[in-house]
Design a protein that fits this description.
2 copies of one chain form a homodimer. By secondary structure, chain A is α+β, with helices and mostly antiparallel strands. Chain A contains 6 helices and 3 strands; from the N terminus they run ααβααββαα. Chain A has a single domain, classed as Winged helix-like DNA-binding domain superfamily/Winged helix DNA-binding domain (Arc Repressor Mutant, subunit A). Chain A binds a DNA duplex through helix 4.
Chain lengths: 115, 115
DNA sequence: TGCGCATATAAGTATATGCCTATATACTAA
DNA sequence: TTAGTATATAGGCATATACTTATATGCGCA
């Protein structure tokens, strides 16, 4: 069994800085259970689409999340290949499940499911 | 066995924001192994004393670290009673040990040990 | 008391962050 | 091609952050 490489302070602090924003942390907690697209986050956070897009971009830029286009939508998910993925998971598992946001979305008929 | 209370998003993001700074994260990683005083951090980070003092204050203000006066010095340590203590520990354990900073300090004869 | 060391606070400044509106790009479907 | 929807980018603005220097406070000891 190979010893686990420690995460550098630089990389960890960059990841933690992004996690240190309430909006992004909530997004990440949601993504821990379900993939989401930008327009769902816009509904959930009641925030402008460009704001959401910028939060998402920052997380994508450091490899924390990844995107996959599905037709018109781009679905975002946690990137299991992210170097800080284990740390991220450990943090997210200490946080309350955020399913109520998705349930609201479903009630409003706004949940995207591109099958 | 009582189920562990989840940490609120608000409290977690406040803690993560503080951890998201390279200087503070390194301080915390050091404190995971050894108590330190402000003047030691000043040596280690080669930064002005007020800067260090302000970093320390932010972490103290949210209860992440605690202080104990020992004569002339104030020793800082991780606060085991901090609500996010477990999360903090999990993050810190993913980071490389920072003992080299203390070893440099000892070589320079600047390590404080108030016995 | 008064000096020296450790730490804290105040005030100023440059940069970073997070939001907005306006606009551009990408895809779908008529 | 054109309209409609989803997302990204650009630019601007207000606030937050991280540093600095100057000064105040707290403690130990002669």
């Amino acid at each position: 069994m190979v010893a686990k490489e420690a995460l550098s302070i630089d990389k960890a602090s960059a990841a933690l800085k992004l996690m240190g924003d309430k909006t992004r942390l909530t997004m990440l907690r949601i993504l821990a259970d379900h993939d989401c697209c930008v327009c769902e986050f816009v509904e959930i956070f009641n925030m402008s689409q460009p704001s959401i897009s910028q939060h998402v971009r920052k997380m994508k830029d450091i490899g924390m999340i990844k995107e996959q286009r599905r037709g018109q939508w781009i679905m975002y998910s946690l990137n299991q290949g992210f170097e800080g993925y284990e740390m991220l998971q450990q943090v997210l598992h200490q946080l309350p499940v955020q399913d109520h946001h998705l349930e609201e979305l479903i009630q409003k008929g706004k949940r995207i499911s591109c099958e």
